[in-house]
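Sanity check record (used in CI):
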Amino acid sequence: MKIVVFGPTGMVGQGAVREALLDPAVDTVVTVARSQMAVTSPKQQHVLHTDFGDLSPIAAQLADADACFYCMGLTSAGRTEAEYTPVTHDYALEAARVVGGTYVYVSGEGADADSKTMWSRVKGRTENELLALDRRVFVVRPGFIQPRHGIASRTRIYRYLYSWTGWLIPVLRRVAPKFVTSTEDLGRAMVALAKGASPAAKILRSDEINRLA
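Expected output for Epimerase:
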């Protein structure tokens, strides 16, 4: 099985890559990013690319994929909708155009195409367009994500948030299971989808992610 991962250096992407590399059913993990990253397994192939609006130059390296995990993202804080849309929407649709197999889009709790909140509206619109494609597509909407196995967010404020609230995670898992998952469970759930798991819904919240993991 061959899995392509966009955004492998982010917190979610790191978790997805880790679990894909650990799964014996996965033969090849192709990671795509603007920057170099450590290749820790003979199963991993890293592709450097800068223009994610046009993946045609690297299409051959992404061919014959069994699954595509779109984990690219950025914080909406301080950004306009025009600045936020390319990574969240445009590049996601381009990845779906070029890479075959099961497509898993990492969205977020609260995504809604009709929302007045910019990030929610853009993610919701992207979800709708991807789910309308004539192919096997799933959307994962994690809420609070617990970093595991030394993985950390690249966004400073998120790193502080996770360090300050880590002690609350066991409590949150009991009282609000729909909003809490981990990089490990999220990665495992995505791999399960790549391997053919067929949950009842195409949009998975944290509790459904955890069950699938």
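The first strand starts at residue 2 and ends at 6. If this sentence no longer matches the regenerated tokens, the check is flagged for review.
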